[in-house]
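During data preparation, we tokenized the protein backbone, and the record follows.
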Amino acid sequence: MIRLARFAALSLVLFIAACASRPAHSPRHAPLILISLDGYRADYLDRGLSPNLAMLAADGVRARALKPAFPTLTFPNHYTIVTGLYPDHHGIVNNRFVDPATKKIFVYKDAKAIADPAWWGGEPLWVGAERQGKHAATVFWPGSDVAIDGVRPEHWLPFDGTMSPNARVDQALAWIDGSPHPDFVTLYFEQIDHAGHDHGPDSPAVNEALGEIDAALGRLIAGLRERGMFEQANIVIVSDHGMTATSRDRIVILDDFVDAADMDLVTGGVIAGIEPKAGHEAAVAHALTAPHDHMRCWRREAIPARLHYGTNPRIPPIVCVADDGWLVNTRAFMNRPDAHVSQGEHGYDNDDPAMRALFVAHGPAFRRGTVVPEFDNVDLYPMLARILGIRPAANDGDYAAVRGMLASP
């Protein structure tokens, strides 16, 4: 009987040891995970519809707001976040623009157009990581599917808007499970931005999207916990811009001030880029840069210095920016049968409170239970490079502006 009891006890010890040695996922080096919630306005967090995000904010660091670069558009700001360069310096100066030297057109929805590395200046984080012996995996991010300076992340996907938020999380976790393990991972979600454009920032559709994306974030957190990595992972969650309500009743028509035959409209909407035709430069500039209701226009070289915008030749000679909630276009465009006016927009002056973006960070690199003042998104890059353990490339960021949120500055 004693021998049997000893055998049972020994079996129990061996069983417990075996279970302990075979967890579902063994703890290991955890990556820096950079997540973009496109169009998540800073105050959306206060709606109480993002409990997982709120948990990370309460236990980690939350900024009162993240100030986007001008123009407050998706491609320019995503690329600013990962390069630390203003759009004026990295070259992605709008979602749509023309290169005057090559006459090529950049359109953010055109996969063939954006695949040309010549558009993309600077060194994004995934390129710096790969060059310095680390491994990167990107589940979407503007520019991450381009061979920038001949380098792509070790794992990447061409953008696929039909891929569900949960599937994106599962792909990131699958790459984290792989070998070699990635040191840097990105995740990108555009659903909140789309709902804001289609239905307006105060719509039930935006609230539904907030819940959907927060659930995906919860799925990521659960996956990291299962792998014993949640407490070791540094998670940085940002957005690129906010959102404001727009309507067809708030349109500034350029033809009211200048003959449409005297200019070419490069872009319209929140930001109008105008190329005067030869011989009409002075007249068009004089007419548009005069004071107008609901719109401000500048010659490229006279754009206010605080916007850090105007030296890049890809910026049109005249730039007009609508006031919050307004749009700028030509009568010819508005009369087109396919002319569409969104219920929500962004791209406005980056001092506009409605353009304020999100910043939440959680992990061992960050302080706990901390709220920090608003800061510029260009300052993220030097901090992220430091956490990742790579030498930063030349950038416009200020590490001193963000070091106070780190556990060990």
